[in-house]
Amino acid sequence: MKVVCSKFFSLIAAALAAVALLSGCAVGPDFRRPAPPPVGSYTTQPLSATSSTAGVAGGEEQRFAAGKDISQQWWALFKSPPLNALIEKSLKANPTIDAAKAALRQARENVSAQIGYYYPTVQANYSASRAHDSGAVSPVPISGEEPYTLHTAQVTVGFVPDVFGGNRRLVESLRAQADFQRFQLEAAYIALSSNVVATAIQEASLRSQISATLSIIEIETKMFDVLRKQFALGYVAGLDVAAQEAALAQVQQTLPPLRKQLAQTRDLLAALAGRFPNEEMEEKFELEALSLPQDLPVSLPSKLVEQRPDVRAAEEQLHSACAQVGVATAAMLPQFNIGVNWGSTAETLGQLFTSDMIVWSLIGSAAQTIFDGGTLLHRKRAAEAGLDLAAAQYRSTVIVAFQNVADTLHALQSDADALKAAAAFEQAARRSFDLARRQFELGYVSYLSLLSAEQAYKQAMINLVQAKANRFTDTAALFMALGGGWWNRPDLASPAQIVPSGQSQEKHVE
């Protein structure tokens, strides 16, 4: 038995040695990571601190720290415990994160499944049969017994040598797809946290707008009561009373849409947190309870392509497309197969695997497609076109990433100036309205002057609330545009994990 097994393993060793001799380098282009774009800044003008608005919450000056790293929990800079709690709940319960995690697991399992083709396939089978043959046309067993029993046990080893690296390129492509899903997961984390912050700010803004509207309604109601009394005394015309009543109704008409938006915003927050709309949330948000981050980290432009998950995902799509060219190229070259069969056939179980009953075969084959109507050639050309497509999409993603950062930086500058203007407008409108009201009560100005001052003050209050909210919203947008600090997550072993496994930091696309 030892001699028989030794022969079998010698066959396998000979086959694997032949595989080693046949295996060569993988065909197709080798992927090189694209170099960062030669861009030294995000904007045409140097970054400078924003303007400030004294005496207004959210009116602080914001400064940009070039090259400063971003915290993974950047939302903590708003100093809102309810916001921190809601984001933590959302990251744990939102099904989008679970879906992204499942997609990553699926992609990694596909890689492992394809790696299995690096190794031989070994199958064992056993069969038993009972038969009776005609001695005139069929040989009879050695024992001469009729009917007779045959026991067959066999081990089959099959292997497809990866001579031109087609399987290695396919594994490379699948690994790139797995890394793509990994960055999609990071993007899902960032998008979810950013959406929660933006929606919370929207809720805070709506609450302030509702509060301002209620204040205006209270003022308008008091003015309506005064006018009715003055009309009863004959001091004002009925037209003035009707105009004030219409103005009050107009303001009251703006309240239901704001309340509807607030309710829908709360529903959105519940959905982001993985809850149903009928589940009451403890967290509520007010603008006055949020702190505006004053020192804003701004990554170096050369680092942006490493930190933006969408850019990294596009890079992995490019990597996958590059490997697919190798897969298509290898398919055009000869295909090799090696097979080893070793087994035994005997009339009794006891005779199996004795030296006289052993059967074996070693089979090698090679096949080359001579004519296929151009199928393989066009598949290769399609793969090359896919590589060009992925390269163009990568460049587009990089440009959009830089545009996002530039847009947000410009918005932050404009938001600060807009808040200053809105605060000045609100103060002037309030003074104008107070003065017009006093003068109207003394009979110095007409009601139309008072109504004009009222409407200006109402608009100024709403504008101020929206200007405050814009500063918070665009600050959150900056953190998202810069990548969200995902590389500082505690579950990442080291910053080196920014580079996907199997890739070199120095590689670039030429």
Find the CATH superfamily.
Outer membrane efflux proteins (OEP)
Give the beta-strand count: 6
Number of helices: 10
What profile does the largest beta sheet have? 4 strands, antiparallel
N-C termini distance: 59 Å
Order of helices and strands: HEHHEEHHHEHHEEHH
At the first level of CATH, the class is Mainly Alpha
* Strand order of the biggest β-sheet: 2-3-5-6
Low-confidence stretches: 493-510
CATH-defined fold name: Outer membrane efflux proteins (OEP)
Radius of gyration: 38 Å
Residues in helices, as a percent range: 55-70%
Number of domains: 1
Shape field: elongated
> Whole-number average pLDDT?
88
- Structural class, by secondary structure, is alpha+beta
* CATH architecture heading: Up-down Bundle
Could you explain how this protein is built, in words?
Helix 3 (95-115) packs antiparallel against helix 4 (166-232), helix 4 packs antiparallel against helix 10 and helix 5 (238-253) runs parallel beside helix 10 (447-481). It is elongated and about 135 Å long. Mean pLDDT is 88; it is low at 493-510. Strands 2-3-5-6 form a four-stranded antiparallel sheet, covered by helices on one side. With 510 residues, it is α+β, with helices and mostly antiparallel strands. The chain has ten helices and six strands. The chain has one domain (2-131, 149-498): Up-down Bundle (Outer membrane efflux proteins (OEP)).
